[in-house]
Write a structure and sequence with these properties.
about 10% strand; Cytochrome p450; alpha+beta; 16 helices; three-stranded antiparallel β-sheet; binds protoporphyrin IX containing FE; four-stranded mixed β-sheet
């Protein structure tokens, strides 16, 4: 099938190239502030007809786009298929787009995959921020699900997951077993989120060779993989009906499976709440809260859509951040020792790290910030869509354009960071800069009204998992590999993965 697509693409390109005439960059008359003016798109490379600049992106779009921005500047336009895409690569312009113009650049282009089972019509990720439903969902997240008070109340639900993690690592120490940190980070993140949402672990901590029997993990991973695959039909409308990569078909099947699991969990809870044998207050988790919530605000049949968004958006992002942080620490034993000593001194040798401890661990906080600066999970955020024509720096950001912020490039910009390629947590020790959306040099969670709603939970999970993995444990690389020799290459699949999954052996101290 892929050969047919490539053949069709080549044919279309050849036909169109016959008619292709180099034209000056598009400008148009636009009505801004009540007056009509002719205004140009930001500079950018010329593209081929039909496919535009798609071939310029290569395997690592965050890096290719960063290179192009060095030529065309921090406000650049690309054409991806038929979609005009504006790329921002400086903190000042990121602030302008995400803060000053966030009343205009607030939508999302809804890819085909988001539309299956009518998900885009009720999903926080895909609705525009002007939609009442989006506002309700964000309010639920901010005030009720991820507020400090709520997270403190649900903390006990996550403690059990961390105990299991430590028991598992202890077991690996005892038998000298290699830990697949990538897989463990994924399952622990998934379980931390589902415990918070509905008090259930959905995945064994390490399904090992029986990974295919780990049904939920398999579905979640498949969905993330489907959502992350670039779908040619999103960029070239002629392919829309054909579904040439089978993405829509697979998404429909897997979303159906995910909904069946979530429906089952919700109906079991409803049954338990009805039965007198169970005191429903025992769960007191987010599902209970949502079921108590007025049905007119969030109809019961939409809870599964919200849960799916939170599970898909939160699991991989947290897991990847934990994996990169562990990779950086294992690769730099002195930094690892410093972080571990901090835990030993401030928490104590025989105590488990609690969520309330995180704020009094400055070095651990600096380690996580430095790791996420170098390896932001969403190097280009989730693209926003301009809902009206907007003028930025005298250029046009046209209505319907996708707007990407290259946070990866900003995080490695030598005019902002000294030694940008080096892992130096010490740069954050003064505590002046944070990733909560106010410092535009470091916005791995985005900023403005679309900032990641799961940030407060992610903040607790990332620090807790890393802390529990290093508190009283040292780590040794597999085989003869020495620290400093770890492959730190990245792989872009919408999120920025570690190309080679991290595997290492914990050693009890
Ligand atoms: C290290 C962990 C995480 C990182 C780096 C991260 C990063 C991001 C980023 C960059 C965005 C897009 C912001 C934008 O559009 O400008 C986002 C959106 C989102 N995140 Fe996270 N995230 C993380 C964890 C979580 C968690 C734990 C959850 C929930 C449990 C979550 C739920 C969401 C949702 C629902 C959205 C879409 C919000 C909207 O469009 O209104 N994320 N996240």
């Amino acid at each position: 099938m892929e050969i047919v697509i490539i053949f069709l693409l080549i044919l279309i390109i050849m036909l169109c190239t016959c008619f292709y005439v180099l034209s000056p960059r598009r400008s148009r008359k636009t009505n801004m502030n009540g007056c009509y003016r002719s205004i140009k798109l930001p500079p950018g490379p010329y593209g081929y007809p039909i496919i535009g600049n798609i071939l310029d992106l290569g395997q690592k779009p965050h890096r290719s786009i960063a290179e192009l921005s060095k030529i065309y500047g921090p406000l650049m336009s690309l054409k991806l298929g038929n979609i005009t895409t504006i790329v921002i690569s400086s903190p000042q312009l990121a602030k302008e787009a995400l803060q000053k113009h966030d009343r205009f650049i607030y939508g999302r282009a809804t890819p085909i995959v988001s539309q299956v089972h009518g998900h885009d019509k009720v999903s926080m990720i895909w609705l525009p921020t002007t939609d009442t439903q989006w506002c309700v969902l964000r309010r639920i997240c901010k005030n009720h699900m991820f507020s400090r008070q709520r997270l403190d109340e649900t903390q006990r639900l996550r403690q059990g997951n961390l105990r299991k993690l430590r028991d598992y690592m202890q077991e690996c120490c005892d038998f000298g077993r290699v830990v697949n940190v990538s897989r463990i980070a994924f399952s622990i993140s998934l379980n931390l989120i589902t415990s918070t949402l509905f008090s259930r672990d959905l995945s064994p901590i390490d399904s090992g060779p029986n990974a295919s029997q780990d049904v939920v993990m398999e579905i979640v991973k498949a969905l993330i993989e489907i959502v992350s695959t670039a779908n040619v039909a999103d960029y070239i409308p002629v392919f829309k009906l054909m579904d040439p990569q089978g993405i829509k078909r697979r998404a429909t099947a897997y979303v159906g499976k995910m909904f069946a699991i979530l429906d089952d969990i919700i109906s079991q809870r409803l049954q338990a709440r009805r039965s007198t044998s169970m005191d429903s207050a025992l769960a007191n988790d987010l599902l209970d809260f949502l079921l108590d919530f007025s049905d007119s605000e969030l109809p019961q049949n939409q809870i599964k859509h919200l849960f799916m968004d939170l599970i898909l958006a939160g699991t991989e992002a947290t897991a990847i951040t934990v994996e990169w942080t562990m990779a950086e620490l294992i690769n730099k034993p002195k930094k690892m020792a410093k972080a571990r000593n901090e835990l030993k001194t401030l928490i104590g040798h025989d105590k488990q790290v609690q969520e309330s401890d995180i704020s009094r661990l400055p070095y651990l906080n600096a380690v996580v910030k430095e790791s996420i600066r170098l390896h932001p999970v969403g190097p280009l955020l989730i693209p926003h869509k301009a809902e009206v024509d907007v003028e930025m720096c005298g250029y046009l950001v046209p209505k319907h354009a996708n707007v990407m912020v290259n946070v990866w490039a900003i995080g490695r910009d030598p005019s902002i960071w000294r030694d940008p390629e080096r892992f130096k947590p010490e740069r954050f020790l003064d505590g002046k800069m944070d990733f909560k959306g106010r410092d535009f040099e470091l916005i791995p969670f985005g900023s403005g009204r679309r900032i990641c709603p799961g940030l407060p939970l992610a903040n607790r999970m990332m620090h807790l998992v890393v802390a529990n993995m290093i508190h009283n444990f040292n780590w040794k690389l597999e085989g003869e590999m020495k620290p400093g020799e770890l492959d730190m290459n990245d792989k872009f699949a919408f999120s920025l993965h570690k190309a080679v999954p991290l595997k290492a052996i914990p050693i009890k101290l």
